[in-house]
Amino acid sequence: MTRTQLTEKILDIKREKGWSWKYICGEIGGMSDTLIVGALLGQMKLVKPLAAKAAALFGLSAAEQSMLNEVPYRGMPMPPTDPLIYRFYEMVMVNGPAWKALIEEEFGDGIMSAIDFDFDFERMPHPKGDRVKISMSGKFLPYKYYGAEQGIPEYGFKEE
Amino acid sequence: MTRTQLTEKILDIKREKGWSWKYICGEIGGMSDTLIVGALLGQMKLVKPLAAKAAALFGLSAAEQSMLNEVPYRGMPMPPTDPLIYRFYEMVMVNGPAWKALIEEEFGDGIMSAIDFDFDFERMPHPKGDRVKISMSGKFLPYKYYGAEQGIPEYGFKEE
Amino acid sequence: MTRTQLTEKILDIKREKGWSWKYICGEIGGMSDTLIVGALLGQMKLVKPLAAKAAALFGLSAAEQSMLNEVPYRGMPMPPTDPLIYRFYEMVMVNGPAWKALIEEEFGDGIMSAIDFDFDFERMPHPKGDRVKISMSGKFLPYKYYGAEQGIPEYGFKEE
Amino acid sequence: MTRTQLTEKILDIKREKGWSWKYICGEIGGMSDTLIVGALLGQMKLVKPLAAKAAALFGLSAAEQSMLNEVPYRGMPMPPTDPLIYRFYEMVMVNGPAWKALIEEEFGDGIMSAIDFDFDFERMPHPKGDRVKISMSGKFLPYKYYGAEQGIPEYGFKEE
Amino acid sequence: MTRTQLTEKILDIKREKGWSWKYICGEIGGMSDTLIVGALLGQMKLVKPLAAKAAALFGLSAAEQSMLNEVPYRGMPMPPTDPLIYRFYEMVMVNGPAWKALIEEEFGDGIMSAIDFDFDFERMPHPKGDRVKISMSGKFLPYKYYGAEQGIPEYGFKEE
Amino acid sequence: MTRTQLTEKILDIKREKGWSWKYICGEIGGMSDTLIVGALLGQMKLVKPLAAKAAALFGLSAAEQSMLNEVPYRGMPMPPTDPLIYRFYEMVMVNGPAWKALIEEEFGDGIMSAIDFDFDFERMPHPKGDRVKISMSGKFLPYKYYGAEQGIPEYGFKEE
Amino acid sequence: MTRTQLTEKILDIKREKGWSWKYICGEIGGMSDTLIVGALLGQMKLVKPLAAKAAALFGLSAAEQSMLNEVPYRGMPMPPTDPLIYRFYEMVMVNGPAWKALIEEEFGDGIMSAIDFDFDFERMPHPKGDRVKISMSGKFLPYKYYGAEQGIPEYGFKEE
Amino acid sequence: MTRTQLTEKILDIKREKGWSWKYICGEIGGMSDTLIVGALLGQMKLVKPLAAKAAALFGLSAAEQSMLNEVPYRGMPMPPTDPLIYRFYEMVMVNGPAWKALIEEEFGDGIMSAIDFDFDFERMPHPKGDRVKISMSGKFLPYKYYGAEQGIPEYGFKEE
Amino acid sequence: MTRTQLTEKILDIKREKGWSWKYICGEIGGMSDTLIVGALLGQMKLVKPLAAKAAALFGLSAAEQSMLNEVPYRGMPMPPTDPLIYRFYEMVMVNGPAWKALIEEEFGDGIMSAIDFDFDFERMPHPKGDRVKISMSGKFLPYKYYGAEQGIPEYGFKEE
Amino acid sequence: MTRTQLTEKILDIKREKGWSWKYICGEIGGMSDTLIVGALLGQMKLVKPLAAKAAALFGLSAAEQSMLNEVPYRGMPMPPTDPLIYRFYEMVMVNGPAWKALIEEEFGDGIMSAIDFDFDFERMPHPKGDRVKISMSGKFLPYKYYGAEQGIPEYGFKEE
């Protein structure tokens, strides 16, 4: 059994039952919807209590439940050909240089973590057409300057 | 003169003057910092009054000022090799499928615009390490179902 | 069941029945032929009433009908190796720069939407060989200049 | 001198003079704007009388005028990273399969020419936002079935 | 059923029967061998009377016969790794620039069609080792200069 | 000095003098036009007497003449974006499998040489539009079955 | 049946029987080991008498025996990820320019054939660690200068 | 001035002076050699006091000193063609799956940081040939399970 | 049976039994955990006694046991999309140039072997978050300067 | 100064002087011709005494002589488009799997070194056309099975 086969099985059941993701996330609960849906699509791990709830909901075997608790091989083929996902890719491609310049000026040498980050989106009603509002925050991780002597900042935080 | 040459000239002046992006954006003003920095890095257009201010600040020629008012050929080589930009790319690569599933369930068939979208980031102090907080909102654009007969939704909004 | 398997099943039935796309689109109706054929080939969503008609026509199961109502992961491998599709790709590759220059001069900074666009083609008889006539129109979406102050155009429409 | 250098020179002059493409095309005339702009951007050939007019307008040397009359090495790097051009690329990537199915059913085995084709776009005012209207027609070129015996259609036109 | 599966089935039968391509093309007849073999390998369409003959020869079902009459998605992965096909690819890669220069000088701006072209090869005995002799001719398609005024050549034929 | 710089210099002179390739090949002579143009474009070597003639014609230095006599690093970026060259590439991509099947059946296991091959093209007048007629022949090179024992064909010629 | 499936079957039998390649090549004989193993792995053709011996050894069907006698679609995905094969790839990548310079100086304009070439390797005992000794020889194929006049070398052999 | 130009200048001076990296790192000091060399090669930032020392050593201008203090656009083209760097790439390609399995089992869901990591290498004398000994340690960053309810681990640390 | 299928079977059993890698490596023993896990994931060979132990543990057939003793086709698709493996890839991409400079200065011209290398990792408790500590050592292999005369170093060791 | 610029300078001098590689290698001496030519083309390092001889021969500056003594960033773009180099690439692509099978059976788990290897080629006269004879030998490097217990072979040599 591969993770792709498990995802296909879960989507088959979702389709047959006519369940929405909202319903499924409500039943499993315990974490953000993005993480739960990500796990069911094969990109995230479900911690044990949630994997158990998912297994109960979808009627999965013990091995399938166990697989949901495994960290999958993450990622999808790039560039994304699907327009919805491509638009996010384009935001990075067009705005990446400016984000880099501004974040480094504000925080110093480092990155915004893609691991310790949270993400939320909500519908923002708007008279000219509703908007997708996305909020995310990621921990800033400064480049470590190892071997640093005294008087040299050990981490890449903004220099005075 | 190419846009790349103009960007290099602007960065040379910034370096010689010791200016920060914050200072530069404050002098030019009128739009979000991301857009101004993006324009100076060759990814965005500066509208005429701002191009004039930028030209005055950097001592640019009339032709250079005019080039800042042009829409550049946007985009950068992908995948990004720089870690800071790569982390955003990875967020899309890992979370794209879940975002697609949840946005389509909430909004129907369509995309979140990468054109009519706004973006802001701020520093979020945190005891375990400060965080980069990003807020963005993009207009939801439903797929148009052209040739739609009466009784068929003309646009891809969520079906009842 | 994957969307590819559903497409293959639909094409098998079409072949066995000897149906033309014209006949199939006539039976399902309600939207443009390009969208209906696109959905049956796995690139578009059929809204519920049309998915029901398609299911009745092809004798599909409830789950298969439901899958036709889902937004698929759109896109195909590029560059296209098939000559018919490649010619469209070549038009973009050769004429893209001129289209960009002219559209931006006429409309300002922005794009022609690939989401809110309609498309039609017809046969144009011609003594030297019939022609394929294509008409399409897409909504112009101006780049949003967020954070714009008063006096600065909020959207990228053509500056005076 | 390369064609890229000539294009850069022409754009420098356009910028210094403050000319629009509309003005330039009006001065050169004789062919569609898309072709004239395409030639000045290095993707098309200008026939001799138009190359002469362009040379007079831009003050080009005889060798530069001669280069405008040459067929350039056409094409640009793909996939396009610029959002405006990418949207056209996406239309092909998402709708290509349906276009192929419908054109082949209507015309038989063959292609729509990307060489013998004309193209026009215009602004279509619309209360919800103006639209870009594109019309194009390309000669249908049937696949030649060479070596065809009598009774076998020599060309790929739609079989009865 | 996919076209690949049909090709595999046809090759299985060819192998079991011990038929040569010469024999198969003799039985089906009506078009050049390259086209018939191309169709059986999934790159070309067989017109109806030939598809019927092929179906009789290979004992195919009505649906399989119908599939042979469909235009396949043409093309193969490139660059070709097989040495025989690579040599043709290399001819284009090495000689393409000279062919372009000479054809454009002789014919003007345009292409040699890959659709309306015929192809033949024969064995040419030679004392130092036999040669493969290839003859092909393709219709020259001049670039259309649409929107052309009087006095401007409407097509890209060689200018006087 | 690179070969690319020499090619650019030769094209500059050709343009300034208003020479055609036909004229240039007539002046240099001694080999097929495709080879002479190929050498001037940096894909072929000119043997010494021809390099001398080319140097006299274009007024080249001794080092430049010597460079024309060198074997260049052959090849161009693929896939070709220029439509004229792409059509040849497409012929290989679409017809390669059939060519392989037929050549191997006729000649046995081996290739048609891209090194020991000659090439010629001519204009073929045709009432429906002139055609480009191409003739080429390449030596068939059988795969060597080294280590072959007696009774086993040493070379890959067609088995009886 | 595909060639990949036949290779998998042969490897399954080899594994079950516990045969070495040396044993298999001894049983089939008649050609070099590299060619026999290459054929069983799907990269070479076995001539008829050897295909018959291989079929007897592995207990293959008549169709499978026939497939071993077919010329396969040669080649594997590149660059090779396996370290053993990569080292050969690296030798070409690092030493290719020097090999080209030296072979062309010694032999003139042409190539060393990859078709008419033989290959052998043996174990070379060495006190610091045994070495793999490889010997190969390929026919030098000079570039044909077709259309060559008298006094011009017809082939690309080293000029005096 | 680009960072590449600055790197080239620094290497020119190093070569003219005959300095070793060891000498240079000794003069600049304050951080690990890998970081200092990385900065001089354009992959890292030198903090201000070190940039000042480097500027004094190499006789750089104020603008060049300032550029050394900037965070560069990190990364190099991949896969690396140089054998020394490729071997590290190969270690990841061959051992990546096992490292992932073992690290996730020991630490839970997360990554080893490439930002907060230190690196050292030393020569390890060995009778059969000296060895390169590498030690590195990177902070383990657990995937954040945002939106986690009580009782659900907030971070991806190893579950009991 | 392919190696991928064997890996999938082994992972299925591991999941059903609820075994950890630590437990599995303890049962098989005899080599480092990285090598054992690598072999079970299809990247390494298990020597015969360990393949026998693995077969007993997982209840494998003789052929499956034999396959574990074969050297697999090593490597995985790159760049890695999974974040954990990507971080190692990024370390090479960002630090490769500095590692090359420093290793060559210390050892001379050559590489650190990716074949004769050992690898170990351990958990390093740390108050700010535990760290992954990696130690590896690889034999330095100097480039052989073959054909070296007396007085010229035969190997690429550091010159005095 | 880059290594590419130095190579171009050396080739300019070679061309102006009319020197052959044989002459140059004779003057520099001390190592195999392949290594000397490789170094002058920017792929290898010349040890100090040879760099001195090369500098004297070509009249290089001290900095240029020093650069010849540096280990360059090795490798060239792949796949090679030049036919002479491609044929070597093709040998690896077609024969790689068989070489892997046979070398591993003879030597055990490991590779043939691309670093500690020597290479020689010579002209082999042959009545049907002279041949390029290549001899190379590379040290076999067995995969190290680190952490190996007693009774388990420490290295990957052929198991009994």
From TrEMBL, chains A, B, C, D, E, F, G, H, I, J:
Statement: the UniProt record of this protein carries the keyword Lyase: yes
Keywords from the UniProt entry: Lyase
Function: Catalyzes the reaction of cyanate with bicarbonate to produce ammonia and carbon dioxide.
Family as reported in the entry's similarity comment: Belongs to the cyanase family.
Enzyme class, UniProt record, top EC level: lyase
Catalytic activity, as annotated: cyanate + hydrogencarbonate + 3 H(+) = NH4(+) + 2 CO2
Organism: Rhodovarius crocodyli
Pfam families per record: Cyanate_lyase, CYNS_N
The name this protein goes by in its record: Cyanate hydratase
Record: active site: 87, 90, 113
HAMAP family, per database record: Cyanate_hydrat
Annotated ranges, domain Cyanate lyase C-terminal: 74-146
Entry EC no(s): 4.2.1.104
GO molecular function, one term: cyanate hydratase activity
Name of the encoding gene: cynS
InterPro entries, sorted: Cyanase (IPR008076), Cyanate_lyase_C (IPR003712), Cyanate_lyase_C_sf (IPR036581), CYNS_N (IPR048564), Lambda_DNA-bd_dom_sf (IPR010982)
